Amino acid sequence: PLSRSPRNRWLKIPDDEKGYELDLFCVPKHYEEDLDRVIIPHGLIMDRTERLARDIVRDMGGHHIVALCVLKGGYKFFSDLLDYIKALNQNCDKSVPLTVDFIRLKSYCNDQSTNSVKVIGGDELSTLTGKNVLIVEDIVETGRTMETLLSLLSECNPKMVKVVSLLVKRTPRGSGYRPDYMGFEVPDWFLVGYALDYNEYFRDLGHICILNEKAKVKYKV
Ligand code: IMP
Ligand code: MG
After folding, report:
1. Distance from Cα 192 to the centre of ligand 2, integer Å
2. CA 201 to chain centre
3. Counting ligands in written order, which one lies closest to the CA of residue 76?
4. Residues 25-61: pLDDT tens digits?
5. Is 95 in the pocket of ligand 1 (CB under 6 A)?
6. Alpha carbon distance 121, 71 (integer Å)
7. Is 50 exposed, middle or buried (0-12, 13-18, 19+ CB in 10 A)?
Protein backbone atom coordinates (compact mmCIF):
# COMPACT_ATOMS: atom_id res chain seq x y z
CA PRO A 1 0.00 0.00 0.00
CA LEU A 2 1.15 3.53 -0.77
CA SER A 3 0.28 5.06 2.57
CA ARG A 4 0.47 2.92 5.63
CA SER A 5 -1.36 4.14 8.67
CA PRO A 6 1.10 5.87 11.06
CA ARG A 7 0.22 3.44 13.83
CA ASN A 8 1.61 0.58 11.77
CA ARG A 9 4.90 2.37 11.27
CA TRP A 10 7.92 2.73 13.48
CA LEU A 11 11.38 4.23 13.54
CA LYS A 12 13.91 1.77 12.19
CA ILE A 13 17.44 1.82 13.63
CA PRO A 14 19.65 0.23 10.95
CA ASP A 15 22.29 -2.45 11.56
CA ASP A 16 25.07 0.00 10.71
CA GLU A 17 23.79 2.62 13.16
CA LYS A 18 26.79 4.14 14.93
CA GLY A 19 24.81 5.89 17.64
CA TYR A 20 26.48 8.67 19.60
CA GLU A 21 29.61 9.01 21.67
CA LEU A 22 28.97 8.67 25.38
CA ASP A 23 30.89 11.88 26.14
CA LEU A 24 28.33 13.95 24.26
CA PHE A 25 25.58 13.08 26.73
CA CYS A 26 25.17 12.75 30.48
CA VAL A 27 25.44 9.21 31.81
CA PRO A 28 25.89 8.15 35.44
CA LYS A 29 29.53 8.03 36.47
CA HIS A 30 29.10 4.45 37.77
CA TYR A 31 28.28 3.21 34.24
CA GLU A 32 30.84 5.16 32.18
CA GLU A 33 33.15 2.16 31.81
CA ASP A 34 30.32 -0.23 30.91
CA LEU A 35 28.77 1.39 27.86
CA ASP A 36 29.93 1.58 24.25
CA ARG A 37 27.60 4.08 22.60
CA VAL A 38 24.30 5.85 23.12
CA ILE A 39 21.86 4.35 20.63
CA ILE A 40 18.60 6.12 21.44
CA PRO A 41 18.96 9.36 23.43
CA HIS A 42 16.31 9.98 26.08
CA GLY A 43 14.84 12.93 24.19
CA LEU A 44 14.19 10.84 21.11
CA ILE A 45 12.49 8.16 23.23
CA MET A 46 10.21 10.86 24.63
CA ASP A 47 9.36 12.35 21.24
CA ARG A 48 8.47 8.98 19.76
CA THR A 49 6.45 8.09 22.89
CA GLU A 50 4.43 11.29 22.51
CA ARG A 51 3.41 10.20 19.02
CA LEU A 52 2.55 6.66 20.15
CA ALA A 53 0.25 8.17 22.79
CA ARG A 54 -1.55 10.13 20.06
CA ASP A 55 -1.97 7.05 17.82
CA ILE A 56 -3.27 4.96 20.72
CA VAL A 57 -5.79 7.55 21.86
CA ARG A 58 -7.02 7.97 18.32
CA ASP A 59 -7.66 4.22 18.00
CA MET A 60 -8.81 3.35 21.51
CA GLY A 61 -10.32 6.69 22.49
CA GLY A 62 -13.93 6.55 23.63
CA HIS A 63 -13.33 3.30 25.49
CA HIS A 64 -12.10 2.93 29.03
CA ILE A 65 -8.49 1.69 28.80
CA VAL A 66 -6.75 -0.50 31.36
CA ALA A 67 -3.03 0.08 30.80
CA LEU A 68 -1.17 -3.05 31.87
CA CYS A 69 2.50 -2.45 32.65
CA VAL A 70 4.85 -5.38 32.16
CA LEU A 71 7.37 -5.03 35.00
CA LYS A 72 10.08 -4.35 35.56
CA GLY A 73 11.45 -3.25 32.18
CA GLY A 74 8.28 -1.50 31.08
CA TYR A 75 7.94 0.93 33.96
CA LYS A 76 9.68 3.97 32.46
CA PHE A 77 7.95 3.69 29.12
CA PHE A 78 4.64 3.01 30.87
CA SER A 79 4.94 6.07 33.05
CA ASP A 80 6.01 8.40 30.22
CA LEU A 81 3.42 7.02 27.78
CA LEU A 82 0.66 7.52 30.34
CA ASP A 83 1.82 11.07 31.00
CA TYR A 84 1.42 11.83 27.30
CA ILE A 85 -2.00 10.14 27.19
CA LYS A 86 -3.00 12.21 30.25
CA ALA A 87 -1.85 15.38 28.50
CA LEU A 88 -4.03 14.52 25.50
CA ASN A 89 -6.98 13.82 27.80
CA GLN A 90 -6.54 17.22 29.39
CA ASN A 91 -6.25 19.15 26.17
CA CYS A 92 -8.52 17.45 23.62
CA ASP A 93 -12.27 17.35 23.06
CA LYS A 94 -12.12 13.58 23.13
CA SER A 95 -10.82 11.93 26.28
CA VAL A 96 -10.46 8.38 27.50
CA PRO A 97 -10.67 7.12 31.11
CA LEU A 98 -7.52 5.33 32.08
CA THR A 99 -6.83 2.88 34.88
CA VAL A 100 -3.62 0.99 35.52
CA ASP A 101 -2.57 -2.51 36.34
CA PHE A 102 0.77 -4.28 36.70
CA ILE A 103 2.15 -7.71 35.95
CA ARG A 104 5.65 -8.97 36.58
CA LEU A 105 7.25 -11.38 34.12
CA LYS A 106 10.75 -12.77 34.01
CA SER A 107 12.39 -14.58 31.09
CA TYR A 108 15.96 -13.33 31.00
CA CYS A 109 19.22 -14.40 32.61
CA ASN A 110 22.42 -12.50 31.69
CA ASP A 111 21.91 -11.49 28.04
CA GLN A 112 19.97 -14.60 27.03
CA SER A 113 16.25 -15.11 26.76
CA THR A 114 15.37 -18.35 28.58
CA ASN A 115 12.64 -20.65 27.36
CA SER A 116 10.44 -20.22 30.40
CA VAL A 117 8.41 -17.09 31.02
CA LYS A 118 7.51 -16.76 34.68
CA VAL A 119 4.69 -14.65 36.06
CA ILE A 120 5.98 -13.42 39.41
CA GLY A 121 3.44 -11.07 40.90
CA GLY A 122 0.83 -8.51 39.93
CA ASP A 123 -2.95 -8.35 40.32
CA GLU A 124 -5.27 -11.18 39.42
CA LEU A 125 -5.63 -11.13 35.63
CA SER A 126 -9.33 -11.90 36.10
CA THR A 127 -9.90 -8.21 36.91
CA LEU A 128 -9.36 -7.59 33.17
CA THR A 129 -12.46 -9.49 32.07
CA GLY A 130 -14.53 -7.36 29.70
CA LYS A 131 -11.97 -4.53 29.64
CA ASN A 132 -10.04 -2.85 26.86
CA VAL A 133 -6.48 -3.70 27.75
CA LEU A 134 -3.36 -1.93 26.53
CA ILE A 135 -0.28 -4.01 27.34
CA VAL A 136 2.81 -1.82 27.71
CA GLU A 137 6.13 -3.60 27.17
CA ASP A 138 9.73 -2.43 26.88
CA ILE A 139 11.08 -4.75 24.21
CA VAL A 140 9.94 -7.70 22.10
CA GLU A 141 12.72 -10.05 21.09
CA THR A 142 11.65 -13.66 20.38
CA GLY A 143 8.04 -12.66 21.07
CA ARG A 144 7.67 -15.51 23.56
CA THR A 145 6.99 -13.28 26.56
CA MET A 146 4.20 -11.46 24.76
CA GLU A 147 2.67 -14.62 23.28
CA THR A 148 2.64 -16.19 26.76
CA LEU A 149 1.03 -13.13 28.31
CA LEU A 150 -1.54 -12.86 25.51
CA SER A 151 -2.58 -16.47 25.94
CA LEU A 152 -2.86 -16.05 29.73
CA LEU A 153 -4.92 -12.92 29.19
CA SER A 154 -7.26 -14.50 26.64
CA GLU A 155 -8.40 -16.96 29.31
CA CYS A 156 -9.86 -13.96 31.18
CA ASN A 157 -11.89 -12.76 28.17
CA PRO A 158 -10.95 -9.10 27.92
CA LYS A 159 -13.04 -7.08 25.43
CA MET A 160 -10.02 -5.87 23.47
CA VAL A 161 -6.27 -6.29 23.81
CA LYS A 162 -3.67 -4.07 22.17
CA VAL A 163 0.07 -4.23 22.70
CA VAL A 164 2.51 -1.34 22.57
CA SER A 165 6.22 -2.06 22.78
CA LEU A 166 8.84 0.67 22.83
CA LEU A 167 11.35 -1.57 21.03
CA VAL A 168 11.20 -4.58 18.74
CA LYS A 169 14.40 -6.45 17.94
CA ARG A 170 15.23 -7.73 14.45
CA THR A 171 16.34 -11.23 15.24
CA PRO A 172 16.30 -14.64 13.53
CA ARG A 173 15.12 -16.03 16.89
CA GLY A 174 11.85 -14.13 16.51
CA SER A 175 8.54 -15.98 16.35
CA GLY A 176 7.13 -13.45 13.88
CA TYR A 177 5.00 -11.82 16.58
CA ARG A 178 4.50 -8.06 16.07
CA PRO A 179 2.89 -5.70 18.60
CA ASP A 180 0.06 -3.38 17.50
CA TYR A 181 2.21 -0.31 18.15
CA MET A 182 5.97 -0.07 18.26
CA GLY A 183 8.35 2.78 18.90
CA PHE A 184 11.61 1.61 17.35
CA GLU A 185 12.86 -1.45 15.50
CA VAL A 186 16.40 -2.17 16.70
CA PRO A 187 19.27 -4.42 15.53
CA ASP A 188 20.01 -7.70 17.28
CA TRP A 189 22.00 -6.04 20.08
CA PHE A 190 21.65 -6.27 23.82
CA LEU A 191 20.43 -2.85 24.92
CA VAL A 192 20.22 -1.28 28.37
CA GLY A 193 18.87 1.91 29.90
CA TYR A 194 15.47 3.56 30.25
CA ALA A 195 14.46 0.65 32.54
CA LEU A 196 15.95 -2.06 30.30
CA ASP A 197 18.37 -3.97 32.48
CA TYR A 198 21.26 -6.38 32.51
CA ASN A 199 20.78 -8.49 35.65
CA GLU A 200 18.97 -5.54 37.27
CA TYR A 201 21.65 -2.95 36.48
CA PHE A 202 21.26 0.02 34.08
CA ARG A 203 17.62 0.75 34.81
CA ASP A 204 18.93 3.99 36.32
CA LEU A 205 20.27 5.21 32.96
CA GLY A 206 18.21 7.64 30.88
CA HIS A 207 19.38 6.79 27.36
CA ILE A 208 19.21 3.45 25.60
CA CYS A 209 22.80 2.26 25.12
CA ILE A 210 24.89 -0.72 24.04
CA LEU A 211 26.60 -2.60 26.81
CA ASN A 212 30.24 -3.51 26.18
CA GLU A 213 31.61 -7.03 26.52
CA LYS A 214 33.58 -6.18 29.67
CA ALA A 215 30.39 -5.10 31.41
CA LYS A 216 28.63 -8.33 30.45
CA VAL A 217 31.29 -10.20 32.42
CA LYS A 218 31.37 -7.66 35.26
CA TYR A 219 27.63 -7.94 36.00
CA LYS A 220 27.21 -11.63 35.13
CA VAL A 221 25.32 -13.80 37.61
P1 IMP B 1 11.15 -12.23 24.38
O2 IMP B 1 10.29 -13.11 25.20
O3 IMP B 1 12.32 -12.97 23.78
O4 IMP B 1 10.39 -11.44 23.34
O5 IMP B 1 11.88 -11.22 25.34
C6 IMP B 1 11.25 -10.17 25.86
C7 IMP B 1 11.83 -9.78 27.22
O8 IMP B 1 13.24 -10.02 27.31
C9 IMP B 1 11.66 -8.31 27.39
O10 IMP B 1 10.48 -8.04 28.08
C11 IMP B 1 12.89 -7.88 28.15
O12 IMP B 1 12.60 -7.90 29.51
C13 IMP B 1 13.93 -8.90 27.84
N14 IMP B 1 14.89 -8.40 26.80
C15 IMP B 1 14.95 -8.76 25.51
N16 IMP B 1 15.95 -8.13 24.86
C17 IMP B 1 16.52 -7.31 25.76
C18 IMP B 1 17.61 -6.35 25.68
O19 IMP B 1 18.25 -6.10 24.64
N20 IMP B 1 17.90 -5.70 26.84
C21 IMP B 1 17.23 -5.92 28.00
N22 IMP B 1 16.21 -6.78 28.12
C23 IMP B 1 15.85 -7.47 27.01
MG1 MG C 1 10.08 -6.82 29.59
Report:
1. 12
2. 17
3. 2
4. 999 999 999 999 999 999 999 999 999 999 999 888 7
5. no
6. 9
7. middle
